[in-house]
């Protein structure tokens, strides 16, 4: 699956332009990695980095920050904002072979891979496992749950997990949205050590809308080649 053009259009329309680091990313990176005392060879990659909300946080501790996103517009924007890492920001589909060959201490997936079907996510996770250093961490947040209110409201069901066609709400015009249950996740993360595996639901008592999602901390085993 190639990058969905919908996201480039949304960025050009100044939508989904988050600028503040996500609290789950900050807390989990500190808890599960050596970022706070990062060595000179500590490397971070954010897949589907979007508008770079986490970059100021990363760069305050680490010089080796990589990002990949399918939107040429947003990558050009990031290169202008963060010239220090312009050479390590790439336009590309992160579910396909990556245009760099580095080993990372930390890979961040903050609600990025959810816009791909399970087959593409499995391919991306295999590459992430290969390009993490032994003991390296993959931090995944906001994998939408099948208990999310919008799961059953999808105008189009591509398969059991992948939905599309939203014209209103948080998923309006974003293209495909994948929803996950425990069984799917356990199948996808084979090969990783699972350090943390959380499901959360937040219900709006006025509307009854429930936002449900999964957060995970995955570790590459030390004995991986």
UniProtKB/TrEMBL annotation:
<keyword id="KW-0808">Transferase</keyword>
<keyword id="KW-0949">S-adenosyl-L-methionine</keyword>
<dbReference type="GO" id="GO:0008168">
    <property type="term" value="F:methyltransferase activity"/>
</dbReference>
<keyword id="KW-0489">Methyltransferase</keyword>
<dbReference type="Pfam" id="PF13649">
    <property type="entry name" value="Methyltransf_25"/>
</dbReference>
<protein>
    <submittedName>
        <fullName>Methyltransferase type 11</fullName>
    </submittedName>
</protein>
<dbReference type="InterPro" id="IPR041698">
    <property type="entry name" value="Methyltransf_25"/>
</dbReference>
<dbReference type="InterPro" id="IPR029063">
    <property type="entry name" value="SAM-dependent_MTases_sf"/>
</dbReference>
<dbReference type="GO" id="GO:0032259">
    <property type="term" value="P:methylation"/>
</dbReference>
<feature type="domain" description="Methyltransferase">
    <location>
        <begin position="44"/>
        <end position="136"/>
    </location>
</feature>
């Amino acid at each position: 699956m190639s990058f969905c053009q919908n996201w480039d259009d949304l960025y050009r329309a100044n939508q989904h332009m988050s600028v503040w680091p996500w609290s789950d990313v900050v807390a989990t990176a500190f808890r599960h990695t050596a970022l706070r005392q990062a060595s000179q060879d500590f490397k971070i990659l954010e897949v589907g980095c979007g508008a770079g909300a986490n970059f100021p946080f990363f760069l305050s501790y680490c010089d080796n920050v990589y990002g990949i996103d399918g939107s040429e517009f947003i990558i050009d924007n990031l290169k202008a904002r963060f010239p220090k890492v312009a050479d390590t920001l790439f336009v590309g589909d992160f579910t396909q072979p990556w245009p760099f060959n580095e080993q990372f201490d930390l890979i961040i997936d903050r609600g990025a891979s959810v816009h791909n079907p399970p087959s593409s996510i499995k391919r991306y996770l295999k590459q992430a496992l290969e390009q993490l250093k032994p003991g390296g961490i993959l931090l995944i947040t906001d994998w939408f749950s099948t208990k999310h209110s919008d799961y059953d409201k999808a105008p189009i069901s591509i398969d059991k997990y992948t939905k599309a066609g939203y014209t209103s709400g948080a998923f309006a015009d974003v293209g495909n949205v994948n929803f996950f249950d425990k069984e799917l996740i356990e199948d996808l993360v084979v090969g990783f050590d699972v350090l943390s595996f959380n499901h959360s639901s937040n219900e709006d008592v006025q509307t009854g809308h429930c936002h449900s999602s999964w957060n995970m901390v995955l570790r590459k085993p030390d004995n991986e080649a």
